[in-house]
Design goal:
By secondary structure, the protein is α/β, with parallel strands linked by helices. The N and C termini lie far apart (48 Å).
């Protein structure tokens, strides 16, 4: 084998290996991407095919001062199911697409703007406290209906999945607590504990200023 032939074979092998690695970065064995719609807009979530990629910036940090950033329990509240990434994707494909559910980001708007999960709606935890005079309006937007006595009926309220920065953030658990105190049924609330850090750690698509979707 001459030098040119050897070089060509090596180049072809490298290209094939790179292509094979990219094809192997799937969500699950039989699923390469997740597609869902929200308000007529279609979103597609896949994984970064660069097998050498690593986290950068804030979400590369392993340790944060506690308080305020203390590890959160696996279960946010009694009756609230905890989700992993696959459950979040199924929720988006099913409940969000059919209009019966929403994925809510409980972080501050400035953090949401830096990067968030596709299809997520920003509802900062601070907007769900009783002191917020617009909280009832938010609850009604989520499907609660007023009763004659001034209370709210949550029978037709939407299913909600909350997330925040990561397992160290109490924004999502606190938002869930506030909704339960307001009367929201726990079985309509879900908690993605891993949040943005876990989402990015497994290379899933995020909406950022550089990747507006």
């Amino acid at each position: 084998m001459n030098t040119m032939t050897a070089f060509t074979c090596a180049a072809l092998f490298a290209a094939y290996a790179t292509s094979a690695m990219a094809q192997n970065v799937r969500i699950t064995t039989f699923k390469s991407e997740s597609t869902f719609t929200l308000n007529g807009q279609t979103f597609t979530v896949s994984r970064d095919t660069d097998t050498t990629a690593t986290l950068q910036g804030e979400f590369a940090l392993t340790s944060r001062a506690c308080p305020p950033d203390c590890l959160q329990p696996l279960v946010a509240a009694d009756g609230v199911a905890t989700f992993g990434e696959l459950e979040v994707l199924s929720f988006l494909e099913d409940r969000v697409t059919d209009g019966t559910g929403l994925l809510l980001d409980a972080r501050a708007p400035v953090d949401f703007a830096v990067g968030h999960i596709p299809g997520a709606v920003n509802v900062p935890v601070t907007t769900l406290v009783p002191e917020n005079r617009f909280r009832v309006d938010i609850l009604r937007a989520l499907g609660a209906e007023p009763n004659a006595d001034g209370t709210l009926d949550f029978s037709n309220a939407m299913a909600l999945t909350f997330y925040s920065g990561g397992v160290w953030s109490d924004d999502a658990p606190t938002a869930i607590d506030q909704l339960i105190l307001a009367g929201y049924p726990a079985n309509k609330l879900f908690y993605y504990r891993g949040g943005m850090q876990a989402w990015l750690h497994v290379g899933l698509t995020a909406i950022t200023p550089q990747n507006p979707g």
